[in-house]
C-alpha cells in the first residue's frame, strides 16, 4: 500500500486544534504598540493589544481589504478544479435524502463554486468567506478552505454552554462563566431573542462542518472536556459556538438566563461582547502591510525538483507568546483564573502516552478505561497501549471501556494496530478496507509519470503502491498502471465519472511479540468484554476503528449528547483520507510535471478527501453509509456526567455490565 497513507498521513486536523489554527508561516515580528491613531482601519487595529482590541476593529480591517479580481478568479478556478478532479465525494455529496442519523442537504459543490465565481464582489473578505462556507456545506471534516488573512484573530464569549438532560427535560445551560459572576448551570432561556437550544441547534446545523449528523455538530458546537497531553489531565473546552476562529456575524450575543441561585429570581439579561485575541504576533501598520504580512505568501526561491513530495504531518496551531495556545486558556488567563482540570477520586491513572491514557476504576475493580483521545501519534504508541493493557491485566481487569470522545483522527496505521490489539487478525485482510480513487485526465497524467518511480512510495498515483483485488490468487501490488489507465464508470446521483477499480488499504499484522502478549488477556477477542464510548466527534481514523470493532467484531457502542430522543452517530467523516492543495502541487512538481492547479496567492490550507473507503460488502462509500454510523445505545449528558468523565464512565460501565 502507499507508504505515506499508512505511516505518515494525518487523516484530519484535530477538531479542537482546528478551531484556533492559523496558517501564517512567516516569522513573528515585534508587535506594534502605541503610536498615533490612524485613519486606516488596519492601522487602528495594528496599534491595539490585549483587551483594547474590539470586534469592530477586526471587522473594519477585514472589510477594508480591497478585492483583487485577478487573484479571486485564480482562487475560484483552482478550488473548483481541485474539487472537480481530485475530491472523491463530489458525486456522493449530491445524495438527495440521507438516512438517519444523518441530516444534511445535497450539495453540488461545483455549482456553488461556479456561482461564487460569477458574482461581482467588492469585498475580499466576503469572497473568501463565501468560498469557505461553500466547502463547509459538504459537512466533511476532511474538506476545508482556510486562508490566514481572515483567521488572524480568535473570538470567545465569556459564557460556554452545554445541553444536559435533568428530570427528563433538556435545557441549554451555562457550562463555564469566565467572568466569575456565578452563572454556571444557570438555564439559558433565550439567545438573541430566540429559544436558546433551538438557536444553538440551528447555528450548528448551518455553521459547523464536523459531521453529516446535526446532533454530532451540536456536540461540536457546545462545551465539553478534552485530554491535554502536556497538562496530563482532562480540561474544559468551550466548543465552536463560544470560540470562533473567524469573524462572527455580529459583535455580541444577547442571553436571557434563569438562575436558581440568584436573587431576585427573575430573568437575567446579558449583552456579551466577543473577547478578541490575536492568533499571531506578526506586525502591520495599515491595510497594505496587513495584506503583505498576514495574507500573502512569501515568494519561494526557485529551484529544481527535489524528488516526490511526501505529505507530512501538519500542526496548525501557532504559538502565542512563545507557548502553545489552547482555546480554553484564552479567557481563563484573561480573567485571572486557572484553566479548570479534573481530579478523579475513584479512577486511578496507570499509564499514559501521546494518544492513550489508561485508568483503573477502583469501585468497579474488574473494569479499566482506555482513553484514546487522538490517533495523531507515532505507530510506536502501540508500546504504550501494550503497557497499559498489561497494567490492566496485572490489576485483574477483565472488561475494558474504550473512550473515543473528541478523537479527531490521525494515522490509519495506528488505528488498525489498536483494532488488532483487541481483536487480532484471523485473516490477512481483517483490518483492511476496500477503497477507490477518482480518476481524471490530470490524475492519469500523474499516474503515467509516477508509475514505478524510485520514490514511488510517496506518490499517491503510483499504482504499484496499491493492491490488485481483481488479479487471480492472493491480492498483490499492481505490476502495471492498470489501476489508473483502466478505470470504471460509476454513476452516482445522476452524475457519471471515472473511478479506479476497488483496491485496498492493507496493514501489516502486529509483531509476534505483541500478538503473544495480548493473547493471554481475558478480553482479547471477546466482544462481550469491551464497550465503546463516543460523542460523535470520533472522526476519520477513530471512526475507522469504531467501524471495525462494531461491525466486524460486534462490540457495542454508546453515544452521548446531542438532542434527547434523537439519533446520534458514533463517529464522523470516517470514510476517507485527506490531502491538501499543496500536496497535489508538490506531487506534480516531484514528477517534473506542471501542476494543473495554480497556487493561491494567500497563505492557505485547502484540504480535501482523495481516497474513499467502503464497509465490508457495501456499495455505498463509508462516508455516506449512514446505517453503519448507528450505535447500539444512546445516553444523555447530565450536569454531573458532562463535568466528570469519572461519573460518565461509571454510568456506562453500570449500564453495559449491569453493575
Automatic annotation (TrEMBL):
SUPFAM superfamilies: ClpP/crotonase
Signal peptide feature range: 1-29
Entry annotated with the keyword Signal: yes
UniProt keyword annotations, A-Z: Signal
The keyword Plastid is annotated on this UniProt entry: no
Name by which UniProt lists this protein: Uncharacterized protein
Naturally occurring in which organism (per UniProt): Linnemannia elongata AG-77
Amino acid at each position: 500500500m502507499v507508504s505515506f497513507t499508512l505511516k505518515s498521513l494525518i487523516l484530519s486536523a484535530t477538531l479542537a486544534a482546528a478551531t484556533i489554527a492559523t496558517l501564517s508561516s512567516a516569522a513573528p515580528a515585534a508587535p506594534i504598540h502605541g503610536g498615533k491613531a490612524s485613519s486606516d482601519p488596519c492601522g487602528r487595529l495594528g496599534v491595539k493589544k490585549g483587551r483594547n482590541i474590539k470586534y469592530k476593529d477586526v471587522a473594519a480591517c477585514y472589510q477594508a481589504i480591497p478585492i483583487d479580481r485577478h487573484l479571486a478568479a485564480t482562487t475560484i478556478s483552482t478550488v473548483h478544479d481541485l474539487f472537480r478532479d481530485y475530491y472523491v465525494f463530489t458525486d456522493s455529496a449530491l445524495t438527495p435524502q440521507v438516512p438517519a442519523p444523518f441530516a444534511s442537504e445535497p450539495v453540488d459543490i461545483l455549482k456553488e463554486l461556479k456561482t461564487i465565481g460569477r458574482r461581482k464582489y467588492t469585498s475580499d473578505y466576503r469572497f473568501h468567506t463565501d468560498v469557505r462556507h461553500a466547502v463547509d456545506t459538504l459537512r466533511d471534516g476532511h474538506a476545508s478552505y482556510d486562508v490566514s488573512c481572515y483567521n488572524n484573530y480568535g473570538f470567545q464569549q465569556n459564557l460556554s454552554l452545554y445541553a444536559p438532560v435533568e428530570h427528563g427535560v433538556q435545557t441549554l445551560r451555562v457550562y463555564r462563566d469566565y467572568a466569575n459572576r456565578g452563572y454556571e448551570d444557570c438555564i439559558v432561556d433565550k439567545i438573541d431573542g430566540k429559544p436558546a437550544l433551538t438557536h444553538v441547534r440551528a447555528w450548528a446545523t448551518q455553521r459547523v462542518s464536523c459531521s453529516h449528523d446535526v446532533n454530532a455538530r451540536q456536540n461540536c458546537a457546545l462545551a465539553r472536556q478534552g485530554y491535554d497531553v502536556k497538562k496530563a489531565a482532562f480540561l474544559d473546552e468551550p466548543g465552536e459556538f463560544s470560540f470562533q476562529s473567524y469573524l462572527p456575524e455580529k459583535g455580541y450575543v444577547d442571553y436571557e438566563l434563569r438562575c436558581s441561585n440568584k436573587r431576585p429570581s427573575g430573568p437575567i439579561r446579558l449583552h456579551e461582547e466577543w473577547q478578541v485575541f490575536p492568533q499571531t504576533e506578526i506586525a502591520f501598520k495599515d491595510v497594505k502591510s496587513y495584506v503583505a504580512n498576514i495574507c500573502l505568501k512569501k515568494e519561494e526561491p526557485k529551484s529544481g525538483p527535489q524528488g516526490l513530495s511526501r505529505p507530512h504531518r501538519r500542526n496548525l496551531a501557532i504559538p502565542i507568546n512563545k507557548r502553545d495556545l489552547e482555546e480554553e486558556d484564552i479567557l481563563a488567563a484573561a480573567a485571572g483564573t486557572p484553566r479548570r482540570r479534573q481530579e478523579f477520586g475513584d479512577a486511578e491513572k496507570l499509564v499514559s502516552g501521546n494518544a492513550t491514557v489508561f485508568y483503573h476504576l477502583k469501585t468497579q475493580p474488574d473494569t479499566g478505561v482506555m482513553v484514546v483521545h487522538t490517533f495523531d501519534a507515532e505507530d510506536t504508541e502501540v508500546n504504550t497501549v501494550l503497557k497499559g493493557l498489561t497494567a490492566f491485566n496485572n490489576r485483574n481487569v477483565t472488561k475494558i471501556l474504550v473512550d473515543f470522545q473528541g478523537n479527531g483522527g490521525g494515522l490509519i496505521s495506528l488505528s488498525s494496530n489498536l483494532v488488532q490489539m483487541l481483536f487480532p487478525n484471523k485473516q490477512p485482510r481483517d483490518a483492511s478496507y476496500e477503497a477507490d480513487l477518482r480518476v481524471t485526465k490530470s490524475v492519469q497524467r500523474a499516474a503515467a509519470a509516477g508509475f514505478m518511480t524510485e520514490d514511488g512510495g510517496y506518490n499517491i498515483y503510483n499504482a504499484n503502491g496499491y493492491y490488485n483485488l481483481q488479479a487471480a490468487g492472493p491480492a498483490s501490488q499492481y505490476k502495471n498502471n492498470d489501476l489508473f489507465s483502466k478505470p470504471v464508470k460509476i454513476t452516482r446521483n445522476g452524475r457519471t465519472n471515472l473511478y479506479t477499480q476497488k483496491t485496498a488499504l492493507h496493514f501489516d499484522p502486529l509483531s509476534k511479540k505483541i500478538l503473544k502478549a495480548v493473547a493471554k488477556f481475558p478480553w482479547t477477542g471477546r466482544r462481550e468484554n469491551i464497550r465503546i464510548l463516543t460523542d460523535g466527534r470520533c472522526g476519520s481514523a477513530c471512526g475507522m476503528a469504531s467501524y471495525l470493532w462494531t461491525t466486524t467484531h460486534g462490540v457495542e457502542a454508546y453515544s452521548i449528547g446531542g438532542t434527547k430522543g434523537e439519533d446520534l452517530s458514533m463517529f464522523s467523516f470516517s470514510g476517507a483520507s485527506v490531502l491538501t492543495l499543496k500536496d497535489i502541487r508538490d506531487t506534480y512538481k516531484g514528477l517534473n510535471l506542471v501542476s494543473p492547479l495554480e497556487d493561491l496567492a494567500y497563505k492557505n490550507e485547502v484540504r480535501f478527501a482523495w481516497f474513499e473507503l467502503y464497509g465490508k460488502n457495501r456499495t455505498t462509500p463509508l462516508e455516506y453509509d449512514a446505517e453503519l454510523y448507528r450505535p447500539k445505545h444512546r445516553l444523555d449528558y447530565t450536569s454531573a456526567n458532562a463535568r466528570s468523565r469519572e461519573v460518565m464512565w461509571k454510568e456506562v460501565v453500570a449500564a453495559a455490565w449491569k453493575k
